[in-house]
Design brief:
By secondary structure, the chain is an all-alpha fold. It contains six helices and no strands. Helix content is about 65%, strand content about 0%.
């Protein structure tokens, strides 16, 4: 109403009576059409200079230190050397490649099965509930009490020994 002068008071009241204030009409139209609301920007000239927030750009320092690059190259060389050493110590390289290929094929197949299950409408929620129930049971059974944590650690160590074939003392 503040925008209406005395000479246009009648036309403004007719406009407001017909459509309501312009901002309310726009908000209704956006809500009705499901469109997101647009927020008007405040122009810098309309704010007092002391209330304007100005941020200084942060200086960016590039990590070009020779120490950093040399430590990364040392780590890379060390890992690469360990991999070469392990590969040379393997006797049946073909068996290892077959097992690796089988593991990749199993991973691909399990991904395909999971995506097929995920496309069934109600099944993903049921699977989430089953997973939640199992996680709760596992927590209660193995992680909640000290004795059961020791039992879990012993089982994990036994499984590790079966897989690696060595006994760590």
């Amino acid at each position: 109403m503040a925008a209406c002068t005395a000479s246009t008071y009648l036309s403004c009241t007719q406009f407001h009576a017909a459509l309501g204030p312009p901002r309310q009409a726009q908000a209704f139209k956006r809500r009705f059409l499901g469109m997101p609301a647009r927020h008007s920007r405040v122009k810098p000239e309309s704010c007092p200079k002391e209330k304007r927030m100005r941020f200084a750009p942060r200086p960016i320092k590039a990590a070009t230190s020779e120490d950093t690059s040399s430590s990364v190259s040392k780590d890379f060389d060390e890992v690469l050397g360990d991999l070469k050493e392990k590969w040379d110590s393997v006797e049946n390289k073909s068996t290892l490649l077959v097992y690796g290929g089988g593991a990749l094929a199993a991973l691909w197949l399990s991904s395909t099965v999971v995506s097929a299950i995920n496309s069934v409408p109600l099944l993903p929620k049921v699977m989430e509930l089953i997973g939640l129930g199992y996680a709760l049971w596992f927590t209660y059974r193995y992680l909640l009490f000290k004795e059961s944590r020791k039992e879990l650690a012993a089982d994990a160590e036994e499984l590790k020994q079966k897989i690696t074939g060595s006994k760590d003392d």
